[in-house]
Amino acid sequence: MRRRRFILMVATLWMAALAAILLVTRGSTHWWTSVASRPVIGQPFHLAAARTGGFVDSRDLVGKPYGVFFGFTHCPEVCPTTLFEMSTAFGELKDEAKDFRLFFITVDPERDKPEILKDYLSNFDARIEGLVPTLDELPDLARSFRVVYEKVPSSDGGYTMNHTALVFLFDKQGEFKSSISFGEDPDVRLKKLRLIIIE
Amino acid sequence: MKLFKEICFATALTFAALVAPAPEAGAHEIKAGNLVIHHPWARQPMKMSEVAAGFMQIENKGTEDDRLIKATAEITPTVQIHEMKMEGDVMKMQELPDGLVIPAGKTVELKPKSFHIMFMGLKSKLMEGEEIKGTLVFEKAGTVEIDYEVTNPDAGMN
Question: What is the ipTM score, two decimals?
Answer without folding.
Answer: 0.75
